[in-house]
Design a protein that fits this description.
single chain, 120 residues, alpha/beta, five-stranded parallel sheet, 5 helices, 46% helix, globular
């Protein structure tokens, strides 16, 4: 049975790349959100197995959205996928409860390995 992924990123390019990377795997993208607000609003509806979360988006950023989702759903598994690969960003993501961090641009093996770890 495939794992359900919710992609939160305002970039169409990243959404396309994630779709390409996940093609032929046990992962299925079931929702796309372009903002943190969308992600928080849709999480209950979608009930994904895993969320990929960008940080920089219009409106609510990905770290705030991650925090809100995890407060309401402590079992949520969220992997930050961002180009903001700084120590303080890693630390905040970890402190909030994100399951991992993948730098953009990402590689297929790196992403799939992080998904596996987040789901185990």
């Amino acid at each position: 049975m495939s794992k359900r992924i919710m992609v939160v990123d305002d970039s169409r390019l990243v959404r396309v790349q994630l779709g390409d990377v996940l093609e032929g795997t046990d992962y299925e993208i079931v929702a796309y959100c372009r903002s943190g607000e969308d992600a928080v609003a849709q999480y209950d509806e979608v009930k994904p197995d895993l969320v990929t979360m960008d940080i920089i988006m219009q409106g609510m950023d990905g770290l705030d959205a991650t925090e809100l989702i995890l407060k309401a759903h402590p079992e949520a598994r969220i992997v930050i996928v961002s180009s903001l690969a700084y120590d303080d960003t890693f630390e905040r993501a970890k402190a909030i409860g994100a399951k991992g961090f993948v730098d953009k641009p990402f590689h297929r093996e790196q992403l799939l390995k992080m998904f596996e770890q987040a789901l185990s």
